[in-house]
Each structure stands twice: as C-alpha cells, then as structure tokens.
UniProtKB/TrEMBL annotation:
PROSITE patterns, A to Z: ABC_TRANSPORTER_1 (PS00211), ABC_TRANSPORTER_2 (PS50893)
BP terms from Gene Ontology: iron ion transport
Cell location: Cell membrane
Record keyword Transcription regulation present: no
GO CC terms: plasma membrane
Principal localisation: membrane
Organism: Gordonia asplenii
UniProt domain ABC transporter: residue ranges: 31-267
Protein name: ABC transporter ATP-binding protein
SUPFAM superfamilies referenced in this protein's UniProt entry, alphabetically: P-loop containing nucleoside triphosphate hydrolases (SSF52540)
Length: 294
C-alpha cells in the first residue's frame, strides 16, 4: 500500500465550514428530509419535499430524467444545501456536524468522480479510510483489512496495482464503489451505481447492495433507472416525478401499472417475476410511441 496520502475526493468530506443549527426532535429514521426545497442557482428542482429513509432497509429512488432523484440524494449526503427546510441525521440538522463525523456515518458514491492523475487502485480505495484516521493514528491493520475486503467485494483485487485512469468505465465504477465500502459507514448512498456496467456486473453490484443491507445491517439508498432491478432488489421504493414523491413503500405497492404510467408516462402490464416474485414491468406494444407523443 502506498504511503502517499492525498486529500480525500468525495464531496461529502468537503465543506469544512458549516453553520451550527439547533438540534431537532429525533425523527423516525436516522436520515430524513424535512420540507426541503432544492435547486441550482435560481432554478428549483424539488420544493417542500419530506421523506424518511427507513433504517436497515435497501431504498431505491426511481423516476424519469430530471425529476430530482440525484438532487435529493445530494441533499441527503450534505453535498447540496437546501434553500429551505432541513436534512436531519440522527436527530440533528446535518450541517451541524463536522464533515469528518458525517463521513464516518454516511458514505456517498456520486454520479461521476475524477481520480487524481496516476493514482493506483489500492491507493484510491484507501482514501475511504480517511474519516477514521487521526493525527496520532494514521494507518492501521483495521484500515488495511477494510481496503482488502472492499477490493474483494467489488471484484477489483487484481486491479489493485493498476492506474485508475487506465481502467475501463465499468472497472472504474467498481473501484469507486470499493472506496465507499472501505469507508465502512452504516449509511451508504449510491447515485446510479450501475452506470457503465454490463448486465452481469450490474446484477453483481445490486447483489452486493442487498448483501450490505441484509448481511451487514447497513442502510442503503440507491438511485436506479431500471424499474425491474429496483423492484427485485429494493425493499422500499420512492417514486418521484417533477420534484415530488408520487408513491413510496414496498415494491408491490409502488411498482403498479397506474404508478408507472403516472411517473413515466408509460403504459404497461405488471406481472409477477417468475424468478423473484417481485413486480415485473412489461411495456405495452406501442407504449414508447405514446411517451414520445406526450
């Protein structure tokens, strides 16, 4: 493992200066948004949205492009500050925590990340241990073990000595997931974690997410585009459109023909998946043409 240490990359570790707010009553979930309005500059994407992220569950956020999915996830990770309302973590406004403390509780995989030039895979993944290090305790056997386990879980052990900028898009995505896993946080937020991956690796990542939740007890939140993958792997679905939540709950209650048409403008049948028994969305003949004509 290289001894070189460069400041950690994910945005959740930035924003060293933060305004301390008074604690709020402890919510029903560790992580929640309370009447948040979110946007970029003068443009609002989400207005007055309230949502609890269920503890110890695998929550999947779905919805059409530009509906506010990633914007909501960024606010939950303290990357984007609401223009009004609050994001609450363990009963306190999230901005009242020091960044390093947030990073010990919450790990984020953003949609796109850029690695420093010439950095190698093991060194990048090792940066997930930054929140756990202190002035007098830099690198420990626990840190080494966490990195080894994260590489193994994402199938990137053989890539450990390679330069990140020479990897394929799918390999890089798995390396970034390994960095988040090495962070070993009880809350894991993933923004489109299956991007750039072929179908086999998509399913591997989703199986890993489910294992993090069911076997390790971590609360996992992911933004996904594939409805059938969301229904198969998630146990709590949040469906969004135009910056608002249309439906939320177990897959069987949310992934219905009516909700799919309301959220995506897509006429479909929903049947039981013969493999998993979860909802399976089958677009009706001509449904794509109907959507284009709306």
């Amino acid at each position: 493992m290289s001894g070189r240490r460069i400041p950690l990359l994910p945005a959740v570790f930035r924003n060293e200066a933060c305004e301390v707010s008074e604690p709020t009553p402890h919510p029903t979930a560790r992580l929640a948004a309370r009447a948040v309005t979110l946007g970029y500059g003068e443009r609002s994407i989400v207005e007055d949205l309230t949502v609890d992220i269920p503890d110890d569950r695998f929550t999947v956020i779905i919805g059409p492009n530009a509906c506010g999915k990633s914007t909501l996830l960024k606010s939950l990770a303290r990357v984007l500050t609401p223009t009004s309302g609050q994001v609450v973590l363990d009963g306190r406004v999230i901005d009242s925590y020091p960044p390093r403390e947030v990073a010990r509780i919450l790990g984020l995989l953003p949609q796109s990340s850029v690695a420093p030039e010439d950095i190698r895979v093991a060194e990048l993944v090792a940066r997930g241990r930054f929140p756990h290090q202190k002035l007098l305790r830099q690198w420990s056997p626990d840190d080494e073990r966490a990195v080894v386990e994260a590489l193994a879980a994402t199938g990137t052990t053989e890539l450990a000595g390679q330069r990140v900028d020479r990897l394929s898009g799918g390999q890089r995505q798995r390396v970034w997931i390994a960095l988040v896993l090495a962070q070993q946080t009880p809350l894991v937020l993933l923004d489109e974690p299956t991007t750039f991956l072929d179908i086999a690796h998509q399913l591997e990542v989703l199986e890993l997410c489910r294992s993090l939740n069911r076997d390790q007890g971590r609360t996992v939140v992911a933004v996904l585009h594939d409805l059938n993958q969301a229904a198969r792997y998630g146990d709590h679905i949040v469906a969004m459109r135009d910056g608002r939540i249309v439906a939320q709950g177990p897959p069987a209650q949310v992934v219905t023909a009516d909700v799919v048409e309301e959220v995506f403008g897509l006429r479909c049948r929903v049947v039981d998946d013969p493999e998993s028994g979860t909802p399976l969305v089958i677009p009706r003949v001509g449904a794509a043409a109907i959507v284009r004509g709306k």
